[in-house]
Design brief:
Distance between the termini: 78 Å
CATH superfamily of the largest domain: Intergrase catalytic core
Number of helices: 19
Order of helices and strands: EEEEHHHHHHHHHHHEEEEEHHHHHHHH
Strand content: 5-15%
Radius of gyration: 31 Å
Helix content: 40-55%
CATH topology of the largest domain: hpI Integrase, Chain A
Number of strands: 9
Number of domains: 3
Oligomer: single chain
CATH class of the largest domain: Mainly Alpha
CATH architecture of the largest domain: Orthogonal Bundle
Largest sheet: 4 strands, antiparallel
Structural class: alpha+beta
């Protein structure tokens, strides 16, 4: 019989005997004995009944006999003990601690993993997402299982059980993408355990992707120009230049939060840092996101309005003067969308709209790659290059909104040929411009 997790106390060595203990605050039976001069008091998780007392007595007699024979193995007898305890006593027994998967309880290993590996993750967003998935989803399902018991089928059943816990979708299955995100820290813990204990075992995550339903590729919403103006009319005045800066540059809220007033240098706005979950990061999502944005007349107008706001070294602030907070801003954004009565768009839609708007007025895709901070033009074509019904009707307004100097920086007064196949007044008024 093997006991589950209990308590370990260190006291002065006494005569090595085993006893069954009871505690006033508990209805469980406890074993109490000394091993290598250390007192071990551990719950059996068995209720205090005569039958269970006999079971515990038999177990304790075997323990004492094996201790006397020198064959007792603490790690095998107490699977629920912490990894630190198991390693400590195994070393005292003169053996190397190399437990097998059936000897390591997942929940106990996670405690060690959270204390040693988890803090090494530099991203606060990653730490937040990992902690939430581990504490609210993974541990409740696998805490008391050994690694041997965590099979591919067990993981699949786990993914099938994942549902929304609150909100309007409460009780409905999570999307495949969300399930996959929850499995990321689970897989990381599994791989780290295999590396730590040098296990060569089949991963329960192999072939799991084939069992999960495929997620339909999400189409990113592009804002029509008239809807954008309606949205701005309903957005709090303080946030209008911030929202316009987003759609004129393709910047995202976390990048706006990292902007300082001294990031404006001459004709360029330097995107160097980001601000996420109250933490300033000296790096961006990728190395390519660190970029210089040429300041057009339209962009400078919004920058000057933001620069003139006193009281903060940061370019973007909340209405109360505090540093720009993307989570709070998203709520302000949603309120304006609801009041405007336009199709639902998120603040991230401004970035997608910037790309689609740029393409519709003839910006060279290779230049757009640099403007958005991507590594290659693949993202431009695959994510932003989809046809948007009716967007070509907005081309003239978008062109005027962005300004001629957006097409060729520094050439705001030079006529630029405009390519337009419709032959409408836009082509006649602006001439025609091609890919530049």
């Amino acid at each position: 019989m093997r006991m589950k997790k209990g308590m370990l106390a260190l006291e002065e060595p006494v005569k090595q005997i085993g006893a069954i203990k009871r505690r006033k605050e508990s209805k469980k039976l406890y074993v109490d004995f000394y091993y290598f001069g250390r007192r071990i008091t551990r719950s059996t998780e068995l209720n205090d009944t005569p039958a269970n007392e006999r079971k515990v007595r038999a177990f304790l007699d075997k323990v004492m006999q094996r201790i006397e024979d020198g064959t007792f193995k603490f790690a095998e007898a107490f699977l629920g003990a912490t990894e630190e305890e198991k390693e400590f006593f195994t070393q005292l027994e003169g053996r190397e601690y190399r437990p097998e998967p059936h000897q390591v309880v997942f929940g106990e290993y996670v405690k060690e993993w959270m204390a040693t590996i988890f803090p090494t993750f530099g991203s606060p967003t990653k730490r937040r997402d990992y902690r939430e998935a581990i504490e609210t989803r993974i541990l409740p399902a696998f805490r008391n299982m050994t690694f041997h018991q965590i099979t591919g089928m067990a993981v699949f059943r786990f993914t099938e059980s994942l549902v929304w816990k609150k909100g309007i979708h409460k009780g409905k299955p999570l999307s495949t993408a969300r399930k996959s995100n929850i499995l990321i820290p689970f897989r990381s813990i599994w791989n780290d355990a295999c590396d730590h204990y040098r296990w060569v075992i089949k991963s329960p995550f192999d072939n799991l992707r084939k069992r999960l339903p495929k997620t339909e590729k999400k189409e990113h919403t592009v804002i029509r120009f008239a809807d954008w103006l309606t949205f701005l009319d309903n957005l709090e005045v303080h946030y209008r230049p911030i929202a316009e800066l987003m759609i004129l540059t393709g910047m995202i809220p976390s990048e706006l939060g990292g902007l300082r007033k001294d990031d404006i240098e001459g004709n360029y706005l330097n995107v160097r840092n980001s601000y996420v979950l109250g933490v300033e990061k000296k790096s961006l999502k990728t190395a390519f996101r660190k970029r210089q944005i040429s300041i057009t007349e339209a962009i400078r107008k919004r920058l000057q309005e933001l620069q003139n706001r006193p009281g903060s070294p940061y370019l973007c602030t909340m209405v109360d003067g505090s540093r720009f907070n993307s989570s709070r801003f998203c709520k302000v954004w949603k309120k304006a969308v609801d009041q405007a009565g336009i199709p639902y768009v998120t603040s991230y839609s401004a970035r997608h709209s910037f790309a689609a708007w740029s393409l519709i007025i003839g910006v060279n895709p290779l230049r757009l790659v640099k403007l958005m901070g991507h590594a290659s033009k693949q993202m431009v074509y695959e994510v932003y290059g989809n046809y948007v019904e009716g967007l070509e009707e907005d081309a003239e307004n978008i062109f005027r909104y962005f300004g001629r100097d957006f097409i060729i920086p520094g050439k705001s007064k030079s006529p630029i040929p405009f390519r337009d196949s419709t032959g409408d007044s836009f082509a006649n008024n602006l001439l025609t411009f091609g890919d530049c």
